[in-house]
Specification:
By secondary structure, the protein is an alpha/beta fold. It has two domains: about 55-425, ANL, N-terminal domain (Rossmann fold, 3-Layer(aba) Sandwich); about 490-620, 2-Layer Sandwich (GMP Synthetase, Chain A, domain 3), CATH 3.30.300. A seven-stranded mixed sheet has the order 5-4-17-16-18-19-20, sandwiched between helices. Strands 7-6-8-11-12 form a five-stranded parallel sheet, sandwiched between helices. Strands 23-24-25-26 form a four-stranded antiparallel sheet. A hairpin with a 2-residue loop joins β27 and β28 (about 505). The structure holds coenzyme A and adenosine monophosphate (AMP). Adenosine monophosphate binds near residues 386 and 388.
Length: about 625
Amino acid sequence: MTYAETYAAWQADPEGWWAAAAEGITWDRRWERVFDRSLGTFGQWFAGARLNVCANALDRHVAAGRGGQTALIWDSPMAGRVERFSYAALRDRTARVAGALAALGVGAGDRVVIYMPMVPEAVIAMLACARLGAVHSVVFGGFAMAELAKRIEDAAPRAVIAASCGLEPGRVVAYKPMLDAAIAASAHKPEACLILQRPQAEATLIAGRDHDFAAAEAAAAPHAPVPIAATDPLYVLYTSGTTGKPKGIVRDAGGYAVALHTSMRMIYGLGAGDVFWTASDVGWVVGHSYIVYAPLLAGCTTVLYEGKPVGTPDAGAFWRVAADHGVKVLFTAPTALRAIRQQDPEAALLARYDLSRFEALYLAGERCDPPTAIWAAERLRRPVVDHWWQTETGWPITAGFRGLGLFAPKPGSGGRPAPGYELHVLDDAGAVLQRGETGNLAIRLPLPPGCAPTLWNDAEGFRHAYLADFPGWYRTGDAGVIDADGDVSVMGRTDDIINVAGHRLSTGAMEEVLASHPDVAECAVVGAADALKGQAPLGLVVLKAGAARNAADVARELVALVRERIGPVAAFRTALVVPRLPKTRSGKILRASLRRLADGEDPRPPPTIDDPAVLAEVAAVMGQEMKPR
Ligand code: COA
Ligand code: AMP
């Protein structure tokens, strides 16, 4: 079937289409209704069905006689190791870790926070939770203690699984002291912590609360998969919203399994035995869906890479991993390609590796600028496919479809809508715009299987954030345009979220940190264009009257404060002290004008600007202080 035929088949009978897709999953009990409009905030998929996602990802492949096939390859230039796990071995380790968690009192519905770097035990921990029907919540290692504490407090986990440390180029990041401090700061205290000791920095265990991961695994009896309702949560993944409070994106089990399984063939063109490498982190949605669940549900071999695109050891690292493991499809963020291109503009290192098994490169996380996409396509001589999605959706909204013969979208475009998504561009009043017109990208309800049905403990927050502005639609928060061919281009966020090196961050959260500094009267953080990271946060602060401080000292303190409170991943490196901030007459800070100013564009202030002279003052400070980007 072609893309057009498949999309039309879904449009003609959405529930029938998803029911057919659901045959790819092994159910303990089949559904009563494919879609039940009466449940949740906008309805739920596969109501009445029961399944275990871990059993679908592991046990059923072993039962089908493929236990000897490699499920997971861990390639860590940081630790200097490569390890392979067959489906049988991964199933056995996961079953034991599930047994260890059960021995600590973890059962179906309990939350487990996972704070781990890119080690196989992170994947095993996630799957072990899924095996028990427990709800995991993975926290990215680049977040600081306070962010971890917020997530522990909101998810209220019975247990935490963590590693003693992560490995970043040039430094060992000790996770355990951050975990201890986060638990101390959180009103909720988990009963138990399972700590994976890594030799680079062993942690001190707290008697009574902390348990050694390896010892607990060795002592545990394997646990069988526990079927849960398709509508039960598989995980909660916190993501940046517009304020300092992260949003707990809920993923329900059944729809997610169906959507991911379907996406592997339809979008990436991969099936059992194929090697898929997603160079992201298990702490992000891309890692949840395309390092862990989707490739294993499809019986592929997934690569878990603990390293960087450059510097571990060089800009040929990605090509080395792809060649060594016979990667068929690689999925990464455009920023990684820009980093490689910066260091190896002619891609000379490519020639060292045999990429004969490599077929396509998929990109997401931020818009891929056409020059980067063209550079990669010319050097690799393979299709480079940009595809667009969000933590909320769990799988691509638009893509190129290798499985449906449509896989080389125009550079700058994120492809066409996946079956399941009726995507339109709306004006601010909610009217559907014509093709070629730019506006708010919105999805007509219901969202397809796999997409978040709600926010953790906050159904009202879900309605308010996504469903309220345009009744009957899901507001993506992205602006974009659909061209005459139906190809979608995503231009950027319509809210205060920015994408820094493919990491989703909230400028509102950074503003809260800046505003907490005793000398800061008011502030604004905007995402300024950055040649490597796509965007980089830029802080503009006005000091309190009488704060007789050296601007450079305050700026240094602010940079340190954001790193301490949010984490190094915020990549907050520039704070500028300005005399005033530009505002409308009603007092709203003109962030869009500030962003344009930072990018060297005409600031285009709205007619409601209070005092246009302020923009010139800010421009003067930027001109003096900001190095050319
Ligand atoms: N644990 C602890 N610290 C982390 C971390 C982790 N898991 N991940 C990143 N950090 C730190 C980095 O060490 C860096 O610290 P520094 O300020 O001391 O240098 C900081 O957070 C910023 O990281 P990052 O923005 O990633 O920049 P970088 O300079 O380390 O690397 C790239 C730049 C482009 C190579 C890198 O961002 C990259 O590989 N990006 C791919 C993005 C990606 O996979 N996105 C996922 C969505 S698909
Ligand atoms: P996250 O939830 O971290 O996956 O970030 C989602 C946001 O990243 C989206 O709302 C977009 O703003 C941006 N994004 C992700 N993929 C793309 C893409 N292919 N093109 C443009 N923007 C993207």
